[in-house]
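TODO from last week: model Fructose-1,6-bisphosphatase.
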Amino acid sequence: MDRNLAMEVVRVTEMAAIASARLMGRGDKNESDQAAVDAMRRAFDALQIDGTIVIGEGERDEAPMLYIGEKVGRRGEGDPAVDIALDPLEGTNLCAYGRPGSITVVAMASKGGLLNAPDTYMEKLAVGPRARGAIDLRKSATENLRAVAEKMKVYVEDLTVVVLDRERHQDLIKEIRAAGARIRLIEDGDVAGAIATCFEGTGVDVLMGTGGAPEGVIAAAAIRATGGDMQGRLVPRNPGEIERAKKMGITDMAKIYAAEELARGEVMFAATGVTSGDFLKGVRFFGGGCETHSVVMRSKTSTVRFIQSLHKFDKKPGYAAF
């Protein structure tokens, strides 16, 4: 996977972002998500890859496109074989109600590089490069916060922790508060929350809590590319999810995965803002076009590029159709 491919992947997230942003604030999360899916699927057709979706919109019988196992790209002779994890619209509710933080994301790795995570929960702990090596999911939230603060040479009271605002996190939230750290509760979008830990300007230091396992793999790709650190552990909700995980080759439900195990080898990650958040601005429309803000990262070089793009619809008729 060369650096030119990384730039091409940004076009995929841009198209999905523009399509879903057209429907921002309409109150229909399914409509926004479907628009992103349709646009992203069309954009993949132009990529010179032999791609297989390993994390997508669900199983083949659950999703008409971007389903697990679907082949995408031109798939020509010599095109690189890659595994793909994607979320055409992370934060569907955020987009549907015009709230901050929704993004479109694609992670890509060499064949076999991404964990085939089942559609279940994952306990996650993520930090940026300054706290790399300080986290351990086997320890309590309090112990981890103290270790992170020590590694970053700050007080626990200086740390800000991102947590999904869910009933299941009430005990975790109480412990974080008792430890003295600050909390930023988010409605959706823990991929964006995990990535935010890797950028100083966001004011986010740690992500804690339980969210979707597929999103954990996507976040791990971005964290690896930026030099951050992450651990995850599957949390199946019922026997059916355990059986599904076993069918996907996962037998140890108690295993703690490092970021390097969730996204192995060379990985790249691209995201485009739909509604403005911590590290990406949302899509801004103007007469005859729009402006997008994206980020693309590669683990091989740890290069992070922020891309501001102006799109003129008379030059890109496909974009104007969204």
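Done. The mean pLDDT is 93.
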